[in-house]
Amino acid sequence: MIQLAKSENVETVDSDSVETVDKADHPVASGPGTPSPRVLAIANQKGGVGKTTTTVNLATAMAATHKKALIIDLDPQGNASTGLGIERSARHLTTYDLLLGEATLEDAIQPTIVPGLSVVPSSVDLSGAELELIDLEEREFRLAAAVRRAQLHFDYVLIDCPPALGLLTLNALCAADAVLVPLQCEYYALEGLSHLVRTIDRVKRAFNPSLEIQGVVLTMYDRRNNLSDMVAADVREHFGDKVYRTVIPRNVRVSEAPSHGKPVLVYDWRCAGSQAYIHLAREMLRRERKAVA
Ligand SMILES: Nc1ncnc2c1ncn2[C@@H]1O[C@H](COP(=O)(O)OP(=O)(O)O)[C@@H](O)[C@H]1O
Ligand SMILES: [Mg+2]
């Protein structure tokens, strides 16, 4: 069995009608009294575990159920921006400008092909931001301040984190209400998870007392592979109810969609991957409603 060290402080812790929309359909500014959106960081320091795929498709599924969503692309690779069809030449104001205080969140927001879903794109400049931020005041809170200052007409803000636990991810964890952890169903999945949990714990103590793990979502599940089941069972043993019942299957349509600049829900909403993200969004919204009640 694959085990997380027990001694470690582990917390048990209808989209086919998509059309091009213009910015007028994505109002961001509003008067006082706008309720704050719920901010989720999608984080795991391992690369290739499904963070970006989950961010893009969960947000798309939310938008399809009339929850307005904003994705903040905090990875210099800009895969979320690319996967949403935002050309590099169209990324005028980016998360880099936001963190450096050169743009407001409202100004950096762009519409996407999905009605109700907007994005703040990233650019390669962001890879230098960690160094540039070091000497700035409140370097951990640059993103939190930008989100707090903005008047946003969104229900959810999803932050797509880079595959590292550096200053960029730290900014996401300080800006977030909660963390969603995608976990790939493979042998080394649990390696590093305890490190992530400890980091979240430290951020909670030092910077953001209300931060919590919102959930763990198992990705790229392969039902022909016993290992997927073993990993899933192990993760459920450690994280209990935090683990979503919905599991995202490995599905080729999911991996094809980004090269078309579309969420898989737009590319092929009937495929198993799309259906799983619709279920995940439903389960998440149900869980969130329960948490509030
Ligand atoms: N459910 C899935 N089925 C098949 N391929 C997937 C699935 N989820 C993600 N992928 C592919 O795996 C790769 C890594 O996913 P990605 O979301 O970019 O991970 P991360 O953001 O954690 O680095 C991408 O090529 C993506 O298209
Ligand atoms: Mg990514």
Please characterize this protein's 3D structure.
This protein is of the alpha/beta class and 293 residues long. It has one domain: P-loop containing nucleotide triphosphate hydrolases (Rossmann fold, 3-Layer(aba) Sandwich). Helices cover 38% and strands 12% of the residues. It contains 12 helices and 7 strands. The protein has a 7-stranded mixed β-sheet with strand order 3-4-2-5-1-6-7, with helices on both faces. A hairpin with a 5-residue loop joins strand 3 and strand 4. Helix 1 packs across helix 12 and helix 6 packs parallel to helix 7.
Give a short account of the largest sheet: 7 strands, mixed
Give the strand line-up of the largest sheet: 3-4-2-5-1-6-7
> How would you sum up the global shape?
globular
Which superfamily, in CATH terms, is the homologous superfamily? P-loop containing nucleotide triphosphate hydrolases
- How large is the share of residues in beta strands? 5-15%
Bound molecules: adenosine-5'-diphosphate, magnesium ion
- CATH structural class: Alpha Beta
Mean pLDDT, nearest integer? 87
Q: Uncertain spans, ≥5 residues at pLDDT below 50?
A: 1-31
Q: What is the radius of gyration computed over CA atoms, rounded to a whole number of angstroms?
A: 18 Å
Order of helices and strands: EHEHHHEEHHEHEHEHHHH
| Coarse structural class | alpha/beta
Distance between the termini: 38 Å
Q: In the CATH classification, which architecture applies?
A: 3-Layer(aba) Sandwich
Number of helices: 12
**CATH topology call:** Rossmann fold
What's the total count of β strands?
Answer: 7
**What percent of residues adopt helix (DSSP H or I)?**
25-40%
Tally of discrete structural domains: 1
